[in-house]
Amino acid sequence: xxxxxxxxxxxxxxxxxxxxxxxxxxxxxxxxxxxxxxxxxxxxxxxxxxxxxxxxxxxxxxxxxxxxxxxxxxxxxxxxxxxxxxxxxxxxxxxxxxxxxxxxxxxxxxxxxxxxxxxxxxxxxxxxxxxxxxxxxxxxxxxxxxxxxxxxxxxxxxxxxxxxxxxxxxxxxxxxxxxxxxxxxxxxxxxxxxxxxxxxxxxxxxxxxxxxxxxxxxxxxxxxxxxxxxxxxxxxxxxxxxxxxxxxxxxxxxxxxxxxxxxxxxxxxxxxxxxxxxxxxxxxxxxxxxxxxxxxxxxxxxxxxxxxxxxxxxxxxxxxxxxxxxxxxxxxxxxxxxxxxxxxxxxxxxxxxxxxxxxxxxxxxxxxxxxxxxxxxxxxxxxxxxx
Amino acid sequence: xxxxxxxxxxxxxxxxxxxxxxxxxxxxxxxxxxxxxxxxxxxxxxxxxxxxxxxxxxxxxxxxxxxxxxxxxxxxxxxxxxxxxxxxxxxxxxxxxxxxxxxxxxxxxxxxxxxxxxxxxxxxxxxxxxxxxxxxxxxxxxxxxxxxxxxxxxxxxxxxxxxxxxxxxxxxxxxxxxxxxxxxxxxxxxxxxxxxxxxxxxxxxxxxxxxxxxxxxxxxxxxxxxxxxxxxxxxxxxxxxxxxxxxxxxxxxxxxxxxxxxxxxxxxxxxxxxxxxxxxxxxxxxxxxxxxxxxxxxxxxxxxxxxxxxxxxxxxxxxxxxxxxxxxxxxxxxxxxxxxxxxxxxxxxxxxxxxxxxxxxxxxxxxxxxxxxxxxxxxxxxx
Lengths: 387, 383
What we know:
The complex is a heterodimer. By secondary structure, chain A is an alpha+beta fold.
């Protein structure tokens, strides 16, 4: 017969102060783990809403990102007319040639970072329906106007609505702020391709061409067709894959950091759990003997103490998870290592990370609780009675 | 008195040991975080402070005309100018362990500007003579097992051309080993492959005296103020720091993690000491009856916890010192930046003081509460 769950739970309550401190120490381990993972979670969320599997990004052959890609307008126009590119009801090709320019600007705290300026075509908005102007209005091509992603406008004082800035040879004005549902476009500044191209003397080339295919399968076929065309010397990949690659390159560092920290801190916390559980066992030596006399098996004693340790871990995991929730309101930024430009995002603790954090805490409790539970189960009844 | 502290520490050996270990783990982590953080702030050497890097004012995505080379040379206090272009090609595959800095440069002026690097006479002559040759830093050459005469292939990513290079020399950089993770090859070879666009990524300037640095920076920026490609000039230090800046607030992130580690460890040590003090309630009452003052009782308890802090801290720092040295090599394959990671005395000292502070506090708090409680009540517990 095993001891009831209530026994383990009530036992925790008896040594409230000690148990609380142990929960605190393990809880902070979980908090660190979740905190660092929320950076990765936020970045992943920003990129995953950016790419559409039915759209194709075309870059210069060999280039890994739009930053290092440029090719002539002629080659760009040629790739737009490849069979498989969708047209709307009026016969307009759903294709957009764009120019990407990095410009070094100051953040709020005075540090500098590269900001992405995307020179776009009218079709660019149709290919990215998540973009909505939420403040001000959209830009007029030919008048050196810009619209800025919401997060970027908050982070870079020089990009606030109404501000003026000199880019290359032209003076631009920010006339609108847009929101793109937390996607990576929130970290971009948009203007007409002609205006930005002229300002930076990049009007003779495209950085990328974005194409709309009928379906994800047709997009794959389009990718193959472009890759197979030796003349074009262009590289194509689905928009979804393009952003997924940027995600792994940038989030990997945070995932590694979170895991390394969690493992090391958990080892330290295991000893705290062990201390607490040893104290619990030694305080209850007589009680354990009494239980044995009543007929409870060694296995049941071991189980009850392990359960107690697991409960301790569970509570710590929940505490850590709870403490990590306010992180979700923080927005921050770092550099996207593929494009070398600023990417802003909100921290996000994913359900999966939360589950991982709780499991980590339970595991810490159980590992720390195992030796004391073992020693409790092995106590000899007559000696324990006399204690 | 000292004996009392010692005996108390040994009374529950397992508990003391566990607490020391968890404290050591915490201090170890703090030291590693501190060492990591310092890799983001590059080593200051006199030569790197005397080097100025000139780049396009908009961003590194834009290049500067070749004609700027001669004009920069005319600035007062500039001893030498070398064109240095980041090639950023792919060696073998795009995995981070195969990433390293590759620069196209003018071999003659590079050796004048890249002061601090040492290369033997024969190798340098061979490098200067051959268009397709390259030189590599010692650390990088060792990592990839390159021998003189070996060929490497760099697939262009930023530039639509590939470089097929042959190793003609290995340089060392005694003042800052992190500089040994780079490769330099002939700019002329790349220009030819690109059909001579006449562009340069950055210019490195060597200055005669440290005090002239800011004058040269202003002069260089003013020189191109009204041209199409305005420039930004800064010391090599500031240039390197700008990359760290781009990463965002690393210091805040690491600081927050460090703080959470400290809080977590504090819970552990405070818990231990609270346990130790609580079970000694009656004993402390006896001590007080025998004439020990509150202060001495408190002294015994805090000495005990500070001792735990000292030992735990020392172990943590020692292990960190040993592990960081070995781990740096391993980590550098994944994150090249961390190859130069070392535990500096300032970080070690900070870790040790954190441990001592935690030890002291975790004994003082429960000890203070206990010392104030009534003797009569404590004695009653004996029965």
